[in-house]
Amino acid sequence: MSFLKVRPSRLQGVVDISGAKNSALRLLAASLLTEEKVTLTNYPAPLLDAQIHVGMVEALGKSTICENDKHIEITEGKRLSTTLNWEGRSIRNTLLVLGALTTRLGEGKVPLPGGCKLGERKFDLHVMLLERLGATVWEEGEYLCCSAPSGGLVGSDIHLPLRSTGATENAIICGTLAKGITRVWNPHIRPEIMDLISMLRKMGAKISVFGQEHIEIQGVEGLQGTEHEVIADNMEAITWLVGSVMTGGDVEISGFPYADLEVVLAHLRSAGAKIFRNEDSLIVRGGTCYPIEISTGPHPGINSDVQPILAAWGACAKGESRIVDLRFPGRYGYAEEMARMGVKHEIRGDMLVLHGNGGDLNGALVRALDLRAGAALALCGLVAKDETLISDAWQIGRGYVNFDRKLRELGAAAEWID
Ligand SMILES: CC(=O)N[C@H]1[C@@H](OP(=O)(O)OP(=O)(O)OC[C@H]2O[C@@H](n3ccc(=O)[nH]c3=O)[C@H](O)[C@@H]2O)O[C@H](CO)[C@@H](O)[C@@H]1O
Ligand SMILES: C=C(OP(=O)(O)O)C(=O)O
């Protein structure tokens, strides 16, 4: 059990954005596609999910060396196993590990996917795409298994019924070493996916992106090693931005990934954020949180992961904020926790309505039901009276590098208790 204790604070100073979890994990899975060395820089080593993933690639037979919390080298000294024996917590990325093992070695067995509990999180599209490439997929207890036909996966047309991030990534990974051409129709084109494609191209993969229409992958015989810099975490950037406005702070967010956040920035500007562009940093000079009305969707729309953070904004606004999560309908469990802090809400169909009272919140014992929920509660804790204690704070550690330390560096009263 871990706790994050937060007291009312005004954020002030400079904060650096770390490498993105949702990119780094995909790149770690892609490192399984080659026997050569893969080096990742700007790598968010302290993240719990990154540590689990490194444990998984090591369990498969890779060796890793991690330096300064920002640099990792992944090498292969012995034959890679096709079975990932794993007893601890699982992550959503095991689906991509399965794809990588199957396309390179012809078969794989991985723990069923974990990740945030966001309501139903099916993996039928991953099964569908592997089957389209000729594989057989089945479950064995807590494991998901896959076997390619003799001769390996065979390129095919994969039609995604919805722009799934993970399924797009898995199809790309599988296509790199499949025979012939794989086309992924209706893909999700997100910054993290473009980052994965960029690394795979450096490894020798032949991938063409035809906008939101389709991605074409010409399978190759083998992939080589490479060095690649993980992109900045757009979720972390938004979290600090929202926290700075909520607390009337004065913060410079260094390494701000502007191009990845255009739509969210437009919403926050019109909802009262006082923000200024300074080359690669963003400067927040406080502002006032006005009510927001947003729905989530594929990029460049608002990512589902952002909406709990925007709910914290809504809690600080005076009036009704409305959130509809089209990606993960009903990802509103955090609202019950915010209610303990005095945030009134109701669920109308698929919509969360927050009755913001201008941030008149009280400190409380609340629970981080998932990663972004935990971060959103911490932001509420910065404006609430007295002390807020967030249990299951490890959830935050899954995806934010040194969250409590960065809060303290910004002048906040925040303490991590293991
Ligand atoms: C590690 C990582 O990068 N996680 C991100 C990834 O998750 P993830 O890749 O799991 O999310 P998807 O984009 O696949 O999910 C979008 C929707 O598709 C549904 N679906 C997905 C796969 C499937 O096989 N069948 C199916 O029905 C999901 O239940 C969800 O309703 O993208 C989500 C946004 O899209 C983000 O919130 C997650 O932070
Ligand atoms: C939902 C998230 O991640 P995962 O898919 O790893 O659970 C997230 O990053 O907010």
In short:
The protein has 13 helices and 23 strands. It has 418 residues and is of the alpha+beta class.
Task: Round the mean pLDDT to the nearest integer and report it.
Answer: 97
CATH topology term of the largest domain: UDP-n-acetylglucosamine1-carboxyvinyl-transferase, Chain
The CATH architecture name of the largest domain reads: Alpha-beta prism
**How many domains?**
2
* Approximate helicity band: 25-40%
Looking at the structure, what is the overall shape?
A: globular
Q: List unreliable stretches of 5+ residues.
A: none
Which small compounds were modeled alongside the protein?
uridine-diphosphate-N-acetylglucosamine, phosphoenolpyruvate
The fourth-level CATH homologous superfamily of the largest domain is Enolpyruvate transferase domain
User: How are the strands of the largest sheet arranged?
Assistant: 21-22-1-23
User: According to CATH, what is the class of the largest domain?
Assistant: Alpha Beta
Gap from first CA to last CA: 7 Å
- Cα gyration radius (Å): 21 Å
Q: What is the count of β-strands?
A: 23
